[in-house]
């Protein structure tokens, strides 16, 4: 059935527009794109994929998917100046929700203030354990028997904002840091689309540092 | 079949003798005692239950189970002097493996050196996250969506030694710190006997900070 040219326009709910920021291959970006394509992440679309590194493989992958891409080289530029360009680009593409996907750069306070509770990041540990680089190696060497990943809102501290969700991964006796990192990455690819769905639903509140989903309506 | 009175004595493998140290109700001690009684924790026996607090309910519970108990009041005594009494008591009871079960007291370096890799503790968080007091409340207030518990060897740092195992607990949207702590405690009661079994088996090695179980023999 198609809408009559003279009738009222059918109601199409506005999709949440994602801005993806990456610096590398962007495997989490691709997991998000796949979830959207497969219909498991509904009500969202990728508005733009943005990199701070020339030649980031994730940008090439985005182009292959026919998505708008932008690159603002950050190296050697003042953070505030670079971030201003990125923010302008996100606004131009009418981005509602920003997803950091291996974006190897701290955001300025102005950037974070421009998108309060609208910037997500994924980190390959069960935060607050093992913030920073090489989190999987840190967990492995610490001797944890459970590792995992965390999707969280970005605040002004490194790997610190309100947690949307965490997924666990057992550390196996015959693991090394690489096999563990690979299994954590599989869980990241499930966690990020799921977390985006939770945020986009709007059915949550933040209590202190807690992300609390609203109970399902029983009416 | 019974051994002949004149024949060789039947081989009875020596049981690993546990020394339990507690300061309160000792619910983890009771979980260990239950696992032994039910046969799910084989090859061990509780040699003595020891408290540093007069009237600790865990001591009364141990007496009801017919277990040897001792109390060495720690309050007001120098740590080294108190620990020397405890060590002497553990030696007198021929303790092989010490299990801290809510023992609210740091061990002296001499105590730890007297039982290298022979002292276990359980902590209600996924270490290294949330060491110290009120770990469950810390995890709840941090907004983790996964909490848990850790059984670890005791070293000279607080809640820090080599991890034997960790078990996870989801944080639910309708949790408060108390309901979460109760569900973590259920997992502690499973984790502690399981960790003791792993250690008592002897089929492991410690690589750096990692507790690595030996692969099952395939011969």
Please, could you describe this protein's structure?
Two copies of one chain form a homodimer. Chain A is 33% helix and 23% strand. With 219 residues, chain A is of the alpha/beta class. Chain A has two domains: 104 residues, Formyl transferase, N-terminal domain (Rossmann fold); 66 residues, no CATH class. In chain A, helix 4 links the parallel strand 4 and strand 5. The longest helix of chain A has 25 residues. Chains A and B meet through helix 5, strand 7 and strand 9 of A and helix 5, strand 7 and strand 9 of B.
Using a beta-carbon cutoff below 8 angstroms, give the protein chain pair with the largest interface and the number of residues from each chain: A-B, 29 and 29 residues
Total of domains of chain A: 2
How much helical structure, as a percent, in the residues of chain A?
25-40%
What would the CATH topology of the largest domain in chain A be? Answer: Rossmann fold
Order of helices and strands of chain A: EHEHEHEHEHEEHEE
User: Which radius of gyration of chain A do the C-alpha atoms yield?
Assistant: 18 Å
Largest sheet of chain A: 7 strands, mixed
N/C terminus separation of chain A:
31 Å
Average of the residue pLDDT scores of chain A: 93
Spatial sequence of strands, sheet with the most strands of chain A = 3-2-1-4-5-6-7
Query: Can you tell me the residue ranges of chain A where pLDDT is under 50 for at least 5 consecutive residues?
Result: none
Derived from helix and strand composition plus strand pairing, the structural class of chain A reads alpha/beta
Percentage beta strand of chain A: 15-25%
The name of the CATH superfamily of the largest domain in chain A reads Formyl transferase, N-terminal domain
Number of strands of chain A: 9
**What would CATH call the architecture of the largest domain in chain A?**
3-Layer(aba) Sandwich
Number of helices of chain A: 6
Which CATH top level class of the largest domain in chain A fits? Alpha Beta
Task: List the quaternary state of the chains.
Answer: homodimer
Shape of chain A: globular
């Amino acid at each position: 059935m198609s809408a009559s040219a003279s009738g009222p326009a059918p109601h199409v709910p506005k999709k949440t527009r994602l801005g993806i920021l990456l610096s590398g291959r962007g495997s989490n970006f691709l997991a998000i794109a796949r979830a959207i394509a497969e219909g498991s992440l509904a009500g969202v679309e990728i508005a733009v994929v943005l990199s701070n590194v020339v030649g980031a493989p994730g940008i090439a992958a985005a182009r292959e998917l026919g998505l708008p891409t932008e690159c603002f080289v950050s190296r050697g530029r003042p953070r505030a100046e670079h971030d201003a360009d990125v923010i302008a680009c996100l606004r131009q593409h009418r981005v509602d929700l920003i997803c950091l996907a291996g974006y190897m750069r701290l955001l300025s306070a102005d950037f974070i203030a421009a998108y309060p509770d609208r910037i997500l990041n994924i980190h390959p540990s069960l935060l607050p354990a093992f913030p920073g680089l090489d989190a999987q190696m840190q967990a492995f060497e610490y001797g944890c028997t459970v590792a995992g990943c965390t999707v969280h809102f970005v605040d002004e501290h490194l790997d610190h904002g309100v947690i949307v969700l965490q997924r666990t991964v057992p550390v196996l006796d015959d693991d090394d840091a690489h096999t563990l990192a690979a299994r954590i990455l599989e869980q990241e690819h499930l966690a990020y689309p799921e977390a985006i769905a939770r945020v986009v639903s709007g059915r949550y509140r933040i209590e202190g540092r807690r992300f609390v989903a609203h109970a399902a309506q029983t009416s």
